[in-house]
Automatic annotation (TrEMBL), chains A, B:
Protein name (record): LacI family transcriptional regulator
Family matches, as PROSITE patterns: HTH_CROC1, HTH_LACI_2
Span of the signal peptide: none
UniProt keyword Lyase present: no
Matching InterPro entries: Cro/C1-type_HTH (IPR001387), HTH_LacI (IPR000843), LacI/GalR-like_sensor (IPR046335), Lambda_DNA-bd_dom_sf (IPR010982), Peripla_BP_I (IPR028082)
DNA sequence: GTGAAAGCGCTAACAT
DNA sequence: ATGTTAGCGCTTTCAC
């Protein structure tokens, strides 16, 4: 069933039918009602391709993610997509997923732009000196960054970021207040800009109290359980092991927890652990629910927000970047710091 | 740069240029060379929407996945998509992702069909009595099922499945040979057809040796670490605990491993554990690499294969379903069964 | 081997 | 408030 056919059956012109169905105001209410009824009756749906060609808009949002799968396995990514998808479909957008090897990344964006496959893009997990921002600007494609790619001149791209610095500062302060003095930070690789900000927050909080963590206790690694396990084991074998460990993903938190247990120590008594997973954060001792939740500003909400920002951006509306603060949700303590030995 | 513009610059008709660029045979070799050169020079790319409209093909493959995120978090899904994506892009297809609440599933497929948004679909994680197969057939959309939805009359939809029954039979036999007699099965919920086949394989192997697992030792649960931990703890507290546990996901395997350790037992000595994660399977004791790999028939390959099958299917080629057998890759034992007590 | 012309199904000026 | 007319950029008969 095409628009033309529908129009013929109604004895109207395709134009009127199109207008009625697309909610243009200048259509007689009765006519519109008739048209809408007929459309439903015949199960008419506009052919997307025709519409796209005519309007020049693809009504699709692109997500280019590295094929390494590290990204896609990430529960954070899934949550983000869930939030974004909801907005997309409510606004009539489709989701175009490009899983490509990191090496083809630039080429993929170029192709997407040339073929006009998407109206806009979300940039995930910005890296330091990320080429994508400039690239997309050059290509003239609207985009929203989830995170911040640049430190100076932050306001140029539209972005939504979680205040990673502040949440780590906050968490560190919390542990300081509990009496901890020997800290360690198990962080992601610092090419991801999230990771660097987290370290800043951590160092800042320690600094303010005249404390510091030695370089050997601020580790940048790929966030796997095994890595976290190994590093933590090494720390715990040292003569003055850390009593407070901060890390930045659920996965690594599991490794830390295992190492603590295997060292014959108890989590929440001998060692306090705070994990801040990308945007979804909690203080992970054992138990469910976790005894202490840093925030649940919810990646899902972030996904929805980014989607909305992008759609507005595409529509030419003025959108401003946002930085979301983390909230501590449940204040249950993880137990006091151990006595100084 | 449009086709028309390019044609004008070359002093040719759009028709010829189109034919040359699309590899039609009836174009003079020289003309074609000129055209191709010019196209590259000007960076010409055909507008996908126009092409889509003209050909009636959307050049997109749809993946509808439940918003519950359980699916998307799944590393298996990520691997599958990685494999499929590679084929898609090499064949000029794009990936359309629809993350929708399970409740809107049917509606989503209908919409996709009516709007002609995709040329075909991959059906993930078929359930028992899955409505999608009949629905898609009704809608006339080509599709390939990853897994099998129906037991009887299996050959109707095009599918690619891993032989789950056989891999569990195999794994169970392996444990029987090691001397185990007390078995337990930690399985997914049986509305997922994978899960049921796994149980069949497990029971079949036991049966053949005159063994059986009591109903209380064949549990269907959502595959979370916590669930697995709890169930295993309960089992291990019983007077005659199982010495061999089979489970069907990496996540649940972690829970089992933790429970075994917490019970003061040793994995690979007191309890043998085999995990078969969706399609990516291994025998999980502690350590890396796992001491015993059931298979790595590789979900990625499966993704690529499904993609290829679907594309052929769309092209009208005859495709037949496949069932892939698992292979045991490394035969290192997990240690003997404990003495009967 | 090449081109002219007619769509694909829709939207958007521009009438009326 | 409705219709007429042109496209959108490409593919594809059908002539030559």
């Amino acid at each position: 069933m095409t628009l033309k056919e529908l129009a013929e059956r109604l004895g109207l012109s395709p134009t009127t039918v199109s207008r009625a169905l697309n909610g243009y105001p200048e259509v007689n209410a009765d006519t519109r009602a008739r048209i809408v009824a007929a459309a439903r009756e015949y199960g008419y749906r506009a052919n997307t391709m025709a519409r796209k060609l005519a309007t020049g808009r693809s009504m699709a949002i692109g997500h280019v993610i590295p094929l390494s799968a590290h990204q896609m396995i990430n529960p954070i990514f899934a949550e983000f997509m869930a939030g974004a998808s909801e907005i997309y479909s409510s606004e009539g957008y489709e989701t175009l997923l490009s899983a490509v090897p990191q090496a083809n990344e630039v080429q993929t964006y170029r192709e997407l732009a040339r073929r006009r496959s998407v109206d806009g893009l979300i940039v995930h997990t910005p890296r330091l000196d990320d080429p994508r921002v400039d690239l997309l600007r050059e290509l003239g494609l609207p985009f929203v960054v989830h995170g911040r790619s640049v430190d100076i001149d932050e306001d140029r791209p539209v972005y939504l970021d979680i205040n990673n610095r502040r949440s780590f500062e906050f968490a560190t302060n919390y542990l300081i207040e509990l009496g901890h003095r020997r800290f360690a930070l198990l962080n992601g690789i610092e090419t991801i800009s999230f990771a660097r900000r987290r370290r800043f927050g951590f160092e800042q909080a320690l600094d303010a109290q005249g404390l510091r963590a030695p370089a050997s206790r601020m580790v940048n690694m790929e966030m796997t359980e095994t890595n976290a396990y190994d590093v933590t084991c090494a720390w715990l074998r040292e003569p003055q092991p850390p009593t407070a460990i901060l890390t930045s993903s659920t996965i690594s938190a599991l490794g830390v927890a295992r190492a603590v247990r295997d060292a014959g120590l108890e989590l929440g008594v001998d060692v306090s652990l705070i994990s801040h997973d990308d945007d979804l954060s909690f203080m992970a001792n054992e138990g469910d629910p976790p005894p202490f939740t840093v925030q649940r500003s919810s990646v899902r909400d972030a996904g929805a927000k980014c989607a909305r920002m992008l759609i507005d951006h595409i529509a030419g509306k003025k959108v401003s970047s946002e930085i979301w603060d983390c909230e501590f949700i449940e204040g249950r303590s993880t137990g006091p710091a151990p006595k100084e030995t």
